[in-house]
Amino acid sequence: MGKPTGFMEYERQNKAAEESKKRIRHFREFYTPLSREEQEIQGARCMACGVPFCQSGQMLGGLASGCPLHNLVPEWNDLIYNGNWEEAYARLRKTDNFPEFTGRVCPAPCETACTCGLHDDPVSIKGNEYSISENAYTKGYAAACPPKVRTGKKVAVIGSGPSGLAAADQLNRRGHLVTVFEREDKVGGLLRYGIPNMKLEKQVIDRKIAIMEEEGIIFCTDCNVGKDVKATELLKKYDRVVLACGASNPRDINVPGREAEGIYFAVDFLKSTTKALWSNNMELKDGTYISAKGKHVMVIGGGDTGNDCVGTSVRHGAKSVLQVEMMPKPPAKRAENNPWPEWAKVCKTDYGQEEAAAVFGDDPRVYTTTVKEFIKDKKGAVCKATMVRLESKKDEKTGRMMMAEIPGSEYSVDVDLVLIAAGFLGSESYVTGAFSVEVNERTNVKTVPGEYETNVKNVFATGDMHRGQSLVVWAIREGREAARQVDLSLMGYTNLSVQ
Questions:
Q1: What is the C-alpha separation between 9 and 378, in angstroms, rounded?
Q2: Does domain 6-139 correspond to CATH entry 1.10.10.10?
Q3: Considering the entire predicted model, what is its pTM?
Q4: Which one of 260, 326, 358, 480 is CB 3.0 to 4.6 Å from 376, fit for a cystine?
Q5: What is the CATH number of domain 154-249+425-491?
Q6: Distance (Å, rounded) from C-alpha 333 to C-alpha 177?
Q7: Pathway of this protein (predicted)?
Q8: For 117-137, what is each residue's pLDDT tens digit?
Q9: CA 336-42-7 angle, 5° bins
């Protein structure tokens, strides 16, 4: 490495975030990147590990440890330290089709597995990745590179989320003729309508899609396969079909009063805001979206989507925001049973929670708590919620620990808008039914472990539709692996890489 002692000489430096009370006035990304020189110094902190766990991409304790894409992190860290940014981008693109996305929205399991993080702050891998990608666009070498030879084979990809886009990109590189079908009005899937602008501005997606179109990929929007287009038609027209429709069924909650007006799934709330912004020049216009303005908002769910709902509600001008989490508050530091390089199960405060605390004076989260009942007003709209506190107890029948209600701990809160961010189940049944593909007990498309071809010949499945709800990096990896298997089935051999 160019600077073996860099981790001892330089401190970690992050992108500067705009102050909370200022950034809630807009829906744009709010981080200021480091200068080129500052980012090169961050590359110098990579410490030439004997075994770079940052790129391992293993499952430890049920969670990712290291990068699932096996990004060549030490290589491009060293390259930017030495000022070779173009080669750094080339190395990054070898394993990651979309660093412009992952450099923004990935929770960075690479950093929790960074060796430097054992006794100091980890290397700013995500920040380095972001800068490498943005520099490539600024300098003009994030450009289209159409394949020189076409195979004549045609592949249909159903769904334009990260997994579908990755599969399409890989198959197009190989020279196959790829058409991507998307039921929404714009390409991007989860990236477009599941992640708010503050984390991923949509022009970032658009500029990448423009490159992919220039490389020869065809995108068909407003085309709902299984409804607008029959599966049988696609199977006749295309040599292979890749299903990448995501895990789009939101998980509901079984609570008395759930039918009240004013209770929505988080994805519908976030989607309505994104669509309203793009329809009105990035300004919200009343009546065009699900509004939290002047309302007591309750967000059910403590994950990333729940945090996005908190941040979006604050920007709407909510009167109050409460985020409800059933599980106990995580510790401030790693517990003994959560050692490095496992994903660190520690308490983190994300941007939405920071903003709510700045506006309302307190962290919006309550732990070991759930909703017992929703109360409706005379018009049938939710107006209150009965809450109850929980404790961990052993189930006498199964012997497993479970969260149980604490008798007498009920209390009431005012609420006008409820957003359910309890995760997702499998894909919608009309898609799997249209292709007659088998699903498992979790309604994910069933394949042989490690394989992507379904029970229907020439039909493959990938991403959240295949593995269940997961991270964008896992979706990209699945898309790459599925593309490799599709290519092998078409050509009898493959030179597509996964890692």
A1: 66
A2: no
A3: 0.96
A4: 260
A5: 3.50.50.60
A6: 50
A7: Amino-acid biosynthesis
A8: 998 999 999 999 999 999 999
A9: 55
